[in-house]
Amino acid sequence: DMLVRASSGRGRRWANVPWVALLAPQETKTAKDGIYVAWLFHGDGEGVTLALVWGTQHFRAAHRGAKGATTVRQELAKRRAGACTHIEHKALEDAGFRVDVEAPLFASTPLAKDYEHSCLVHRTWSIEEPMPPDEISRSQELLLETYKKMLQARH
Prior knowledge:
Distance between the termini: 17 Å
Helix content: 25-40%
Structural class: alpha+beta
Oligomer: single chain
Strand order of the largest sheet: 1-2-3-4-6-5
Order of helices and strands: EEEEHHHEHEH
Shape: globular
Strand content: 25-35%
Number of helices: 5
């Protein structure tokens, strides 16, 4: 069973990268922390990214201020590299995913820029290229299977 959450930010904290998240309750019940699968809609409106991401809010809260964003991004890079050791790279890369690299989400707010750094695995589609439903479905199924395997290894 998966929980589904969606947001484009709240109050004064608009992200400019709206998202829909699929959360495994044993890992997290919120997109603020933990690892989950998300559809991230680009800040420039030109694409969408399917990703396995790490929630950034608890990192951000612990590192406020001008140097905080750099610290958060450095910590996310370390955690991303460590978490990716549990991922079968070849099958994902063969399906068009990128592993352990930041996702270009064309974010313009600090919160949304953290999303770019929090992606463990991602695949992007441009609005200019066709997105066949069967390909989208296969990609999401593969990423959800990867997520389940990663959670089994972590818990």
